[in-house]
Protein: UPF0173 metal-dependent hydrolase EGD98_06130
Amino acid sequence: MDLTWHGHSTWHVSVDDTDLLIDPFFGNPKTDIDPAELDPDYVLLTHGHADHIGDVGEFPDATVVSTPEVVAYCEDEYGVGDTVGMNIGGTTELDDAFVTMHRADHTNGMDTHYEDTGGMPAGYVISDTKPTQVSDAESTTFYHAGDTGLMTEMREVIGPYLEPDAAALPAGDHFTMGPMQAAIAADWLDVDYAFPMHYDTMEVIEIDTDDFVREVTATGSDVEPVILDGDETFEL
Structure:
């Protein structure tokens, strides 16, 4: 599984021959990618804020996956054609990938129309095997937490039962977790690798990533904090 961070919360995840793009928003300072350069099979949206769906219309050949409320909005406002509506707790098979939607603690106004709600925000657990209660040491699993605060579900459900090997965690503070709570999340999830995301896009969420590294280390866990450059790929 290859994980490429394109800044903010935008990730390109390759599972064998299947390409997933999460929260396409290329108007951020960490990426030099033109969306036209990418050809994902699926576009996964965690929620409807403009900095997460802004470029969803750039991929007319992709299937867009999100909650029914968000995919309906993208059909109406962005002309998206092929969609999969799913909901919290569900797992869907997307070619070589198994995608489980989990809740995120956040708000969900649509685009910049905050009076229009898109329902519960989400995060995604992406694996190359179907999740079961039987632990599978051979599987490879990545958790994109979406925009969220710290939740005990990370410790009680996502970590022990969905068993992510790596997690992308919002760390920019103000709108989401900051470095301290993101580090606690990484510890609770018991991942091998933790990546900060959703930072430095605008002044109010600028951070020193050394703080994230120090906070992860301070948990005393075996989690390795990984700071990616924009458009950098990590092989999981």
Observations:
- The domain at 2-235 is CATH 3.60.15.10 (Metallo-beta-lactamase; Chain A).
- The chain has one domain: 2-235.
- The radius of gyration is 16 Å.
